[in-house]
């Protein structure tokens, strides 16, 4: 793989030797022109698509997971560089060029071809040519210069810089660096810096060459140049590491991040310690000149260099995945230094000339130059601050406590922060979670899945007993258990890990990926049911009547506990709820659809509650059975933990359905009162829209998607008076509020949010705020209806103004509560 | 037509009987079949196309029309160094060299990969086609070299310090 990057056409410099056919000027890196250049790179593309995760030459460098490739990567990979030649002749590599200009023109134009007639290669279709770049078209041809415009930068990198100017340049680079982290391409950010450009082009082979002023003697160099160079080295190396990390994980090119480096090698061949040494040397140098340039400036420069050192250190440590406390040291250091940097920003003198879009013309890109992305200093400050805070926070994931804290709470709450952590932090989270298929650097996948099964459905069960694996007699029941459980784990592991992986993406992609996952979980559930049936036979389980006859569930025969399929079903239901809830967060639903979607959410939450109830019933029965046989302390603890989890999740389901019911009723009432009006939709019917909206759920057999008629009737509740709707809503809100109070009192352990308790409590508080707000809206509506009568319609008659979808501080993203305002009709 | 699984190599002249020839010896096409034939022989060969702004494009010739618009595949762009740099380099070379006759200047010409491009006919200043010297007849090769040397001598007389790129 690596040899392709050598022959990539980057850094092509053609030696021109006038009037001489001297072959000694031939560049040694060129490959003979006569081989078949295209075939090799094509194979590379296939290899990459086949699941390789390796980075190869920049041009083909997309992550290997089959996400959208970058536009330019759709082009065939470039052939090796052309032969060295001199225009107008020169056969030093056995190539002769003939000038055919006049004959060509004569043939094409004057004598032969008529308008619209073409001479073309049979294998070349005109359809392909649609994608061709038109040369000299300023919109397409990035090399097209305006008259008198020079391609090259006039900026003189050798000019002497004052310390203030170096600070100014560095601070400007912070803004660009942050813009890159946020998803803008390098070409519009850091690579617009003239110093970095000169440093990287032509590609330095030894570290001494990695300088914007080349060919200077050792030890020579103006102090400020040395400082700026060291800083640039640090930045570029950071970029290389970050780019590399991101490319290795799942992310969405263009959407999240642009990994294209435009054939610039970001100092990949240099060791980190070499660069660290340069940074250290620069820091010493700054220290030694502090008397000449003044303490303030020297300190300001020192902080900037220190930040770079710490950043590189943080990156270096992050691969360890061991002790979060030691990993967080450089991040904490950066947090502190960043404040000092921000305070000393006034010392900098901006040097806008040191940044130019012209450099883009020399990058391997077919785009015409685009403007430099400029973040303001304040924004940059805030984003870096958040980056460092998230960098510390994400390390907490390494403190594994239990499977539920990890997924539902740590990953989910971490990702639901607004604004979402930067993609680098998200890829760090992914690498902590999955790198080398070792969860958090210390756990096997089996460990995590078994923990989760034990917590949810099988506390202290012999199905999960590690002793099963030790039995070698094939007819022993334990051997059969171990075998069946292993089959199940292999089946479910990928789907289970996919949930984690999905939650590490951007918000829109999470929802989209979950829509695919639920179908996967449907099959996991079916497969699990088969395994359950084999297992219940092996352990000679006695079927029980469920629901117990006293509760009006008579008539159904005894059933088995079906633990594995229950587990899968629980995940499927939660995924479905998350899809609907993310829909609210992402503002997918129109205001007049909100009521219906909340009704569906409530249905899903009720299904979850019923399932949890069933699981609890069987777990209790098993616990009672084991109690008779005096269980060990470990077994009892497992039962306790599982009971707590089932309690917590059924409480959560109850809160969800109560809140969803309340909002569904509220929106139904608002619709009736003409306070929420559907926009005119002349080309669709409600039923067709329902089909499209529910498409992800239509393929799911259990729970079955309600038919349009059922949905319509349940959403409108025609037979119920508007006043009743509002009464129902306030009743539900009361219930929800009571549930939330209980929820809020749960401890870190009991709420399964170890390591993210604060964020989890924040979520519960947000829900409480949403409930309170909804209650206020319902009260106002009720009062107005009593005052003015139920026959009134529209905001004017009722003297109300309702707004939906306005993000309100302190609420919860998943609960869209309308705001209501009383207006006087005067 | 289905494109081939792997694009033909850019120097692959399979199935073209008249692939190798000395273009200088060809008459200027005067009739339609002759002209089409001429253009057909150029297909899939590597052309060096000079444009009015001094750039040169090197790629495999795929298509042309009556306006002489050219479609080139797998194209590289070459750009001469700016004039100011050339002059200063030439001056430096002249100053450094003790031999006033020596006017050799070595400069970097930048290149980048562009892929598929259309060069509109109106901007084209020069079209050259590449052939393998080894496949020319010995006599033709000699002729070619001679004519080049003549050209160079002329250029030497007309230009003094200037690096000739196109």
From TrEMBL, chain A:
Domain NAA35-like TPR repeats, by residue range, is: 395-744
Principal location class: cytoplasm
Q: Does the keyword Ribonucleoprotein apply?
A: no
Q: Where does the record place the region Disordered?
A: 1-47
Q: Where are the transmembrane segments?
A: none
User: Which N-terminal residues, if any, form the signal peptide?
Assistant: none
Say which family it is in: Belongs to the MAK10 family.
Q: What is this protein called?
A: N-alpha-acetyltransferase, non-catalitic subunit
What species does this protein belong to?
Podospora pseudocomata
The organism's lineage is: Eukaryota, Fungi, Dikarya, Ascomycota, Pezizomycotina
Recorded name of the encoding gene: MAK10
UniProtKB/TrEMBL annotation, chain B:
Q: Which Pfam families does the record cross-reference, listed alphabetically?
A: LSM (PF01423)
Compositionally skewed regions (Low complexity) per UniProt: 144-157
Q: Which stretches of sequence are listed as region Disordered?
A: 136-166
Q: Where is the Sm domain?
A: 37-129
The lineage's top-level taxon is: Eukaryota
Task: Tell me which SUPFAM superfamilies the record gives.
Answer: Sm-like ribonucleoproteins (SSF50182)
The record's PANTHER family line, in alphabetical order, gives:
N-ALPHA-ACETYLTRANSFERASE 38, NATC AUXILIARY SUBUNIT, SMALL NUCLEAR RIBONUCLEOPROTEIN-ASSOCIATED PROTEIN B AND N
Q: What is this protein called?
A: Sm domain-containing protein
């Amino acid at each position: 793989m690596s040899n392709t990057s050598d022959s990539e056409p980057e850094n092509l410099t053609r030696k021109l030797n006038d009037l001489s056919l001297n072959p000694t000027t031939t560049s040694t890196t060129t490959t003979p022109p006569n081989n078949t250049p295209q075939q090799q790179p094509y194979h590379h593309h296939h290899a990459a698509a086949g699941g390789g995760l390796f980075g190869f030459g920049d041009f083909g460098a997309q992550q290997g997971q089959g996400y959208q490739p970058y536009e330019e990567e759709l082009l065939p990979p470039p052939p090796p560089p052309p032969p060295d030649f001199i225009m107008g002749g020169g056969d030093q590599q056995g190539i002769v060029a003939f000038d055919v200009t006049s004959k060509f023109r004569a043939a094409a134009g004057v004598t032969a071809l008529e308008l619209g007639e073409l001479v073309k290669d049979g294998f070349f279709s005109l359809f392909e040519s649609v994608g061709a770049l038109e040369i000299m078209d300023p919109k397409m041809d990035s090399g097209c210069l305006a008259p008198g415009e020079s391609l090259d930068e006039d900026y003189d990198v050798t000019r002497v810089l004052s310390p203030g100017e170096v600070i100014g340049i560095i601070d400007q680079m912070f803004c660009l660096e942050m813009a890159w982290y946020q998803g803008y391409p390098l070409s519009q950010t850091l690579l617009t810096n003239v110093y970095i450009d000169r440093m990287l082009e032509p590609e330095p082979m030894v570290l001494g060459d990695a300088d914007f002023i080349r060919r200077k003697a050792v030890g020579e160099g103006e102090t400020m140049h040395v400082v700026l160079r060291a800083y640039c080295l640090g930045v570029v190396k950071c970029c290389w590491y970050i780019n590399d990390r991101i490319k290795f994980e799942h992310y969405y090119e263009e959407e999240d991040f642009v990994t294209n480096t435009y054939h610039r090698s970001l100092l990949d061949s240099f060791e980190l310690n070499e660069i660290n040494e340069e940074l250290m040397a620069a820091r010493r140098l700054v220290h030694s000149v502090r008397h000449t340039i003044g303490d303030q400036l020297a300190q300001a420069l020192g902080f900037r260099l220190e930040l770079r050192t710490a950043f590189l250190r943080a990156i270096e440590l992050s691969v360890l995945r061991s002790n979060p406390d030691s990993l967080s040291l450089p991040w904490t250091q950066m947090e502190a230094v960043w404040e000092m940097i921000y305070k000393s920003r006034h010392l900098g003198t901006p040097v806008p000339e040191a940044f130019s879009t012209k450099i883009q013309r020399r990058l391997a890109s077919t785009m015409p130059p685009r403007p430099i992305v400029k973040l303001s200093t304040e924004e940059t400050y805030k984003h870096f601050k958040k980056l460092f805070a998230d960098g510390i926070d994400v390390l907490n994931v390494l403190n594994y406590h239990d499977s539920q804290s990890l997924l539902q709470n740590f990953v989910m709450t971490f990702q639901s922060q607004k604004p979402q952590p930067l993609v680098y932090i998200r890829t760090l989270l992914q690498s902590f979670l999955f790198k080398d298929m070792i969860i958090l650097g210390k756990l096997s996948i089996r460990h995590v899945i078994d923990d989760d099964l034990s917590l949810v459905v099988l506390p202290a069960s012999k199905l999960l007993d590690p002793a099963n694996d030790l039995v070698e007699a094939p007819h022993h029941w334990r051997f059969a258990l171990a075998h069946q459980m292993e089959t199940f784990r292999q089946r479910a592991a990928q789907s289970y890990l996919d949930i984690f992986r999905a939650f590490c993406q951007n918000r829109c992609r999470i929802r989209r990926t979950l829509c695919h996952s639920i179908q996967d979980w449907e099959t996991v559930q079916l497969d699990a049911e088969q395994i359950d049936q084999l297992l219940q036979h092996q352990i000679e389980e006695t079927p029980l009547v469920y629901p117990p006859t006293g509760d009006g569930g008579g008539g159904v025969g005894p059933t088995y506990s079906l633990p594995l399929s229950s587990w899968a079903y629980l995940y499927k239901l939660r995924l479905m709820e998350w899809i609907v809830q993310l829909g609210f967060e992402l503002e997918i639903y129109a205001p007049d659809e909100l009521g219906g979607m909340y009704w569906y959410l409530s249905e899903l939450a009720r299904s979850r509650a019923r399932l949890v109830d069933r699981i609890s019933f069987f777990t209790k029965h098993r616990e009672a059975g084991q109690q008779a046989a005096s269980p060990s302390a470990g077994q009892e603890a497992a039962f306790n933990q599982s009971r707590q989890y089932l309690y917590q999740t059924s409480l959560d389901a109850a809160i969800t359905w109560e809140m969803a019911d309340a909002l569904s009723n509220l929106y139904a009432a608002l619709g009736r009162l003409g306070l929420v009006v559907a926009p005119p939709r002349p080309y669709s019917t409600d039923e067709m829209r329902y089909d499209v909206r529910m498409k992800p759920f239509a393929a799911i057999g259990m729970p079955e998607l309600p038919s349009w008629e059922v949905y319509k009737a349940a959403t409108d509740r025609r037979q119920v008076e508007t006043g009743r709707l509002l009464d129902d809503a306030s009743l539900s809100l009361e219930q929800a509020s009571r549930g939330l109070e209980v929820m809020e009192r749960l401890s870190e352990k009991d709420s399964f949010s170890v390591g993210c308790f604060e964020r989890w409590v924040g979520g519960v508080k947000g829900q409480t705020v949403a409930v309170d707000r909804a209650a206020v809206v319902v009260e106002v509506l009720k009062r107005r209806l009593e005052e003015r009568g139920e026959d009134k319609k529209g905001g004017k008659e009722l003297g109300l103004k309702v707004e939906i979808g306005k993000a309100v501080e302190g609420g919860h993203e998943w609960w869209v509560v309308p705001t209501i305002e009383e207006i006087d009709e005067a | 037509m289905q494109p081939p699984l792997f694009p033909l190599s850019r120097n692959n002249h399979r199935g073209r009987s008249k692939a190798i020839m000395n273009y200088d010896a060809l008459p200027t096409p005067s009739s339609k079949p002759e002209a089409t034939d001429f253009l057909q022989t150029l297909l899939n060969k590597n052309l060096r196309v000079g444009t009015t702004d001094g750039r040169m494009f090197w790629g495999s010739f795929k298509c042309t029309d009556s306006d002489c618009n050219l479609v080139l595949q797998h194209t590289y762009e070459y750009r001469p160094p700016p004039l100011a740099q050339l002059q200063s380099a030439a001056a430096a070379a002249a100053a450094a060299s003790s031999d006033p006759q020596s006017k050799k200047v070595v400069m970097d010409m930048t290149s980048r990969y562009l892929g598929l491009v259309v060069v509109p006919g109106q901007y084209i200043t020069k079209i050259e086609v590449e052939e393998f010297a080894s496949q020319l007849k010995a006599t033709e090769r000699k002729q070619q070299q001679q004519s080049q040397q003549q050209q160079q001598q002329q250029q030497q007389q007309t230009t003094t310090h200037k690096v000739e790129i196109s």
